[in-house]
Design goal:
Elements: H1 2-6, E1 17-25, E2 28-36, E3 42-50, E4 61-68, E5 91-92, E6 99-102, E7 108-114, E8 121-128, E9 137-139, E10 147-150, H2 157-218, E11 224-233, E12 236-244, E13 267-273, E14 283-290, E15 308-310, E16 317-320, E17 322-324, E18 329-334, E19 343-351, E20 361-362, E21 370-373, H3 391-406, E22 410-411, H4 412-425, H5 431-445, E23 452-453, H6 459-479, H7 484-494, H8 500-514, H9 525-535, H10 540-553, H11 558-567, H12 572-576, H13 593-611, H14 616-623, H15 629-642, H16 648-668, H17 674-697, H18 707-724, H19 729-751, H20 755-793, H21 798-802, H22 804-810, H23 813-831, E24 837-841, E25 847-856, E26 869-875, E27 886-891, H24 900-907, E28 911-915, H25 918-925, E29 931-937, E30 940-947, H26 958-967, E31 990-994, E32 1000-1004, H27 1007-1025, H28 1043-1054, E33 1060-1061, E34 1065-1068, H29 1072-1077, H30 1083-1098, H31 1107-1115, H32 1121-1133, H33 1139-1155, H34 1160-1169, E35 1178-1184, E36 1190-1195, E37 1206-1213, H35 1217-1220, E38 1228-1233, E39 1244-1247, E40 1253-1256, E41 1260-1266, E42 1283-1284, E43 1289-1292, H36 1299-1302, H37 1304-1324, ...
Parallel strand pairs: 25-26, 26-27, 27-28, 33-45
Antiparallel strand pairs: 1-2, 2-3, 3-7, 4-6, 4-8, 5-6, 8-9, 8-10, 11-12, 12-13, 13-18, 14-16, 14-19, 15-16, 17-18, 19-20, 19-21, 22-23, 24-28, 25-29, 29-30, 31-32, 34-35, 35-41, 36-37, 36-44, 37-38, 38-39, 40-43, 41-42, 44-45
Protein name: Alpha-glucan water dikinase, chloroplastic
Pfam families: GWD1_pHisD, Ig_N_CWD1, PPDK_N
Keywords: ATP-binding, Carbohydrate metabolism, Kinase, Magnesium, Metal-binding, Nucleotide-binding, Transferase
Length: 1350
Amino acid sequence: MGASAASKAPEPTVPKHYSTETLEAHPLHATVTVTRHDSSPEIEVNFQRVGKPVQREGEPLYLHWGIVKNASDNRSVYVRPPKSMWPEGTDPRPGEPSLQSPFTDGGVLSMRFSERFAPAGLVFLFMIRSTNGFDEQWFKRPNGSSFYVDLTGAVSKTELKRRGMVLEEQKKAEEKRHKEEQQRKAKELAEAEARKKKEQAMKEKRSQQAAKYLDDSASADGWNLFKAHEEAYEFGSLFFQVVETAPFPDESASVTRDEMQLEERRIRVHVVSTLSVEGSDIVLHWGVKKGRKGGWHPAPSECRPEDSTAMPDGKAVQTVLKLQGDSGLRIACINNLEKIEDVTGLFSVIHAPNAPHHLQWMQAAKGGDIFIPVIPKRPLPGLNADGDFTDVCVTTLEGIIEREMEYGSWTLMHRYKHASHLISSVIGADETCWATIYVWMRYSQIRVLDWQRHFNTKPRELSSAQLGLVTLLANKFKNVSAIRWLARLVMSCVGRGGSGDLGQRIRDDILAIIRHCRDWGHGSMMEQWHQKLHNNTSPDDVVICDALIVFWEGNGNLSGYWDTIHSHGLSRERMASYEQPITNDPDFRGHIKDTMLWELRRYGALLRQVHLGTDLNSIVERCQGLMDDGCRHEVNNFMYIRNSRSPVLDKLMSVAGARKKVCDHVIFSNSLHDESRRDLIFLDLALESEARRVLESVGGVGHDGTLYSHLVAIQTAAGALMCSEAGLETEHELSRAMNDLDAVIARLGRQGESHDVGLRAAAGMNIMRNVLTEIIDRYGQRLGPVSKCLGLAFNADKNVISTFIEESVRGGPAFSLSTLLRKAGPAVRRVAQLGPYSTIAPLDKETKGPVVVFNKLRECEGANIKRGTVIIANECDGSEDVPKNASYVVIGSTVDVLSHVSVRARNERHGLIACLDESKLAELRGLHGCIVKAQLRGEDFRVEVVDDSARMSPSSGVQSVMKRVKSLGFITPPSGMMTPPGMFAGLKRGKLMKDEGGRLTRRELSERALRALSQKKAALHNRQLGAPWAIRPSEFSDELVGGKSLNLQRLVALGLPSWIKTPLSVAIPFGAMKKVMNFDTNQDLLEEYERLNKQVSAAKLGDVKICPKLRDVIKSLEAPEGLKEALRGVLDDLGCEDIDQTLPNAWVAVKGVWASIWNERAHLARQKLRLDVDDVDMAVLCQRVVDADYAFVIHTSNPVTGDENELYGEIVVGLGETLVGNAPGQAMGFTVRKDEDLDEVRPVIRSYPSKATALFGGDFIFRSDSNAEDLDGFAGAGLHDSLPLFENEVVSINYGNERLTTDDEFRDFMIRGVAKIGVEVEDIMGGVPQDIEGCFKDGEFYVVQARPQV
């Protein structure tokens, strides 16, 4: 039995664990088998490829794999296996957790490892390596994930038990370690807390000691605190305290700080540190700032505290702050700073030499150097203190000035990079900041600023900076419409730049050019230019290249070379001042002429592309792929017409059409990248430049001179200007003006060059001229202050600063439009049968006096001028006063014949003349300072020069002329008098009257008469105080209301025809304002009012500074309850539907009317007549607004000719405030004969309307109604305000579609109806000529007010 047993064969070993899995990774198939045998505590994993090779036999198949250590771990996060698991030939991947192990040629891969090290599983992929002609190929699961083999089932129970025991031991060890760590941390925390408390106590002690030290130093005898500054850090604070022996004078002092003698003041800086930085010493690393210099300067020895050391760099000093006691407080005292010439402050940083490396140097808490001013900050040059500049703008200006004027090294590249920083991170949409960027770049473009200073810029670096800036500008152009015009202007100054290849080509291509002649070695002009281009290329190189082309075309023509250089603002001196100077002339080599011309023209195109960006041919080629089909067609069509013999007008129309397409594509296309938009903007700039060149080449005309050609050219130029005004209101205004000209051109086609068409063309040109003026004014307002500030700071020539705005405008399409308007003027006046002058207020006498010139008529208000003076003013808005001694006023703009300035000129016997012939106006302006005889005869104004020895530039101003006139011995009456000397001698009080010559004077009164007058005035005052707060028309009297209210009441009482309506009216009578002021709640305001009134009485003639303060006092009045209830009644009578909501606005309007007593013009008018403000009473006429379709004003006696049988009227669209309020442009002016049948009479049109906007709405209006409005000589009309309850709606007018100008039958119906009103009102008022205001609404006529015509 035993033998039998021994003879049996041994049974095969059966695996303890066995698993097989088929792996599908099409087209690869494989199996994986996991095995663990009883004979050994090892696990074997076998991979077997199944089937044919994927690519071909011998393909290198690898397992790309890693392990998941624990069953609870994320299977997608694997780690590198231990080396004991690596199969033979395994490649570790540096820095990666995965391994790659090869299969055998038979497609097998086996790995065997102890179960003690067995992970939870394997994560793997299959791959074929790219080698020996095989392509790299990866194989994953069908769902794209990695394969995973679970090994946990192959681990024995014994091993699992062992692992559990190990984990338990590790857990206990960890708990022990954690407990010990907690105990250690608690101990350290307690120790740290104790240290912290001690340090806090010391910190508080240092702070207290620092505060006491600083207080003592600031209050020391003879010292005054100027500046205190603290830099707070985690470790404590650093204090700077600047004290001085004599405080700088304030703004009101007569002596400036710079005028004070140095020996009268001393400057000291106390430096106090409460810093505690790892026990280190605290060292102040500091230097001095001088003037606007940005760099550090070393302090002289007499300024340095003890323990100070000058640094080797020659710029800074290090001072060890001295310990004070045991608290750690450290101090230093810097003295004698006043001895440093032009000192402005101190720079510093903190150095802690013994602290850890990262704490050894500390800047200001907000970054950068600490700066402590020791004198007040100097204002920026040329900026008014009350200028409209944001803090961001001021900071931007200061930063630009510092970099441009103070940095030792600075180039175009630095300039463009700083501009990019400001635009992207600082200025946002601040329009003044954008104006600053443009002015800065413009001064750079015209070479006021250095293009390169002590720094060599590689061409590719410069072109890259340019390209980055203009690409950023293109982005802002698209996204910030309000600054679009400024972004475009900046781009016009910068040039396109280019990527690195374009910049590098500048260096590479010049090398190719100079190789054509071996003689161009060291010292030759071409070699010098080559060296400059290699170091610092600039826009000057475009000019140099153009000059060289002229040189070679002329077979070595040096004269042509230098003419080209000089014509572009370059000079031999400037070229010699380059870092790489050009001092020699070019030399000619005939055998390479053709080659050089080809090379230089190609090189010039490259330079233009980088520096200018507006070379038309290159930019058109670049943009071909960026334009849509319509845009591309228009641009290419212009390029064809440009090179043809087409008429200039056709070229202008073509380029305008191309610009319109390009601009629309740039603004409205959302598919463009910033880079594409940038290039298209440069295309638009190039087209604009080409249009200007075409126009200038023919002297601004370029057509047959007919009215049609003039109008089409103007319309074309306006369309081009619209492109540059994109995103602004002026864009829409230009569009409407173009529509108006369209209507005129259409009528011209039907009627030919008729008188009526001429008048319509004049109105259309006036509209266009007003829009152009608005654009130019915007340039002046936005760019003027900044250009002056930067110009002064950059030390620009005075002429460059003074002409900056003019030159900026001249460089754009606004100047082209201006040129065309000027050229069209004679043709329009010829057709309209208008001379160079248009009489607004006649003066039929010869006068003698000086000529003075102003830009705006308002500038001469209150000016002290001599009798007989002729005033020439470019602009007049219609609301000005004419200085009393002026004989004639010639203005370069149109105003309504019935505007306030026109009425006042006629009342005060001044001649007022409009001159729209620019050449005539320029001729008159050239007489500034001359003594002339002047006389107006009809529409002919004649001037004869009597003495031109005092002729001056118009910029010299009025005072210099007046002084010169006085020195020449011309006799004039005393200042401020229109009557002969002595007329008012001994006058104490008088009554207004006219002398034989019609001049206003006063009649002396006896003492008895004075007492009687005083008693009468007191009685009137008492009656006014006793009057109700509000009265109805039946209660109107001359003691309670002015002429407006009385005349309207009289018209109603005497019986207007039923077809003439009047608005509902109520009045707040004279004396109401005084009653309100005397209420208890307003006593403080009354006292302030009386105090200010006394100041006005004591002020010089023409001084209006206190007027705004007096208006503010009146506007601050509180309404008594009785007045509030009265206002409720007023609103109720006028039909107000929501009285509670309306009442506050009504009270504001009433106060606004009262406050207008102190309008500057009203105050000057009273001074002119020597009227006291107490002599002027103000009622308020309250009316419901007729929301008119049209408004009109009538003078029933022609105010220009004096013909009593001819009525003169003006009509506007909408409410009459655009007419009486002097809105820009003209009304429709007409005359009608009163002695003809008004149903059949043919009105004579004197002017067609050109006001751009109309007003509608308002609900209720509160009109000024003073007792002085109709006083002879006072010309009170329009001096005081009439205010709507709610702001009127402003609506733009398109006269091409306006019935008043397109429907002749309706126009004549309107005019005849207005004329009939004039005749009816004049008859009712006893045949006295009348000044009437009215309106037309829904087919009905209204009279709003009427008064005797002055």
